[in-house]
Specification:
By secondary structure, the protein is an alpha/beta fold. Helices cover 46% and strands 8% of the residues. It has a 7-stranded parallel sheet. α2 (43-55) links the parallel β1 and β2 (61-64). α10 runs antiparallel to α11 (248-265). It is elongated and about 85 Å long. Mean pLDDT is 76; it is low at 1-8, 199-206 and 317-342.
Length: 342
């Protein structure tokens, strides 16, 4: 998990519009491979391919002798805003024509062929197609062939490629839909592109994400150490004032456990404000003797009552958030903590 504020990935943001997505993808300094469809016969698949491509910043589409109307309403609907890819697609009569200007060609296949060729997984193919050497030498003009929906590429078309991309699947049901195959390969290309380019520096400013990250709500941030310490001091002081754990060694151990819990989860400012409210509610009940003393919460009836009231007060606190009676704004956090809580 990575903390916001560093020069690292801090989460995705929803774009306000799809406008200019095609232009931005086309203008990238890193030239993404060209997707080449051979004899597609379902217009819906062509539309879905266009969407999958633009999802991952791949903008150039070539189609060899399509057997369907690639400009149909179904294709446009399933492109879901990526129709410009289809509008700008280049049509060729043969596979040879479609790859004549490319410097490298990869072909996708799920079936073993009677020929000797290098076989890549999608991730390895992306690494090869967008290698640093290829980009530096301006040889990253790569095309990736995708075959027909029914039987893929034939052996002659496979022989035109420099290497093969094989998507590992369940051997008893290995055939992928055309758009699904393009989606898998495009995703791996996008991951590699983020790695070498740092994302769209002029637009989304995204860095390559870690495997796990904490995504904050808008306007929230992880509490600073001084804010967590302030909260814990308030909590510990309140417990001490109510004779929590008379044994000093055990009390120190429990306070250490308490600190470890809060520091491990990296609480947000609003979380601490919420917890502070719950603590204030409990302290009030202790003081008016509706709850047993803190040092006697070990009996079963007291624990049951404690748990019931916990649920009740958490619901009450949540309602206060919704009605605005408790301000979760991070800017008001220190002010809130400075209020009297016991």
């Amino acid at each position: 998990m990575q903390n916001p504020g560093r020069n690292t990935f801090v989460g995705y943001k929803h774009s306000d519009t799809k406008r200019n997505a095609y232009e931005l993808a086309s203008a990238s300094r890193v030239r993404m491979p060209t997707i080449i469809l051979v004899n597609p016969f379902l217009d819906a698949n062509v539309g879905s391919v266009a969407r999958a491509m633009l999802n991952f910043g791949v903008s150039e589409l070539r189609i060899v002798d399509p057997i369907c109307n690639i400009h149909s309403d179904a294709a446009k609907a399933l492109s879901a805003g990526a129709y410009q890819i289809i509008e700008n697609a280049k049509i060729f009569a043969t596979v040879e024509d479609s790859i004549s200007d490319l410097k490298r060609v990869m072909a996708t296949s799920v079936r073993p062929r009677d020929m000797t060729q290098i076989v890549y997984t999608p991730a390895a193919a992306a690494k090869e197609a967008l290698s640093a050497d290829a980009i530096a030498s301006n040889s990253s003009f790569v095309g990736i062939l995708f075959g027909r929906e029914t039987n893929g590429l034939n052996n002659h078309e496979m022989s035109l490629a420099d290497s093969i991309i094989h998507i590992p699947t369940f051997s008893s049901f290995s055939s992928l839909n055309l758009a699904q195959a393009v989606n898998v390969v495009s995703y791996e290309l996008w991951k590699k592109r983020l790695e070498i380019d740092g994302g769209e520096k002029d637009t989304v400013k995204a860095l390559s994400p870690p495997e796990v990250w904490l995504h904050p709500r808008d306007g929230e941030r992880i509490a600073k150490r001084e804010e967590v310490d302030n909260y814990l001091r308030r909590l510990e002081s309140s417990l001490l004032n109510r004779d929590f754990q008379a044994d000093e060694n055990r009390r120190r151990l429990l306070f250490r456990y308490l600190r470890n819990i809060y520091q491990r989860v990296s609480p947000y400012c609003a979380h601490l404000v919420f917890l502070l409210l719950v603590v204030q509610e409990y302290i009030f009940l202790f003081d008016i003797h509706l709850l047993p003393p803190v040092n006697k919460l070990t009996s079963s009836p007291a624990l049951i009552l404690f748990l019931i009231l916990t649920i009740s007060f958490m619901k009450s606190s949540e309602d206060k958030f919704k009605t605005g009676r408790l301000d979760p704004n991070p800017n008001s956090f220190l002010c809130t903590l400075s209020c009297r809580c016991c």
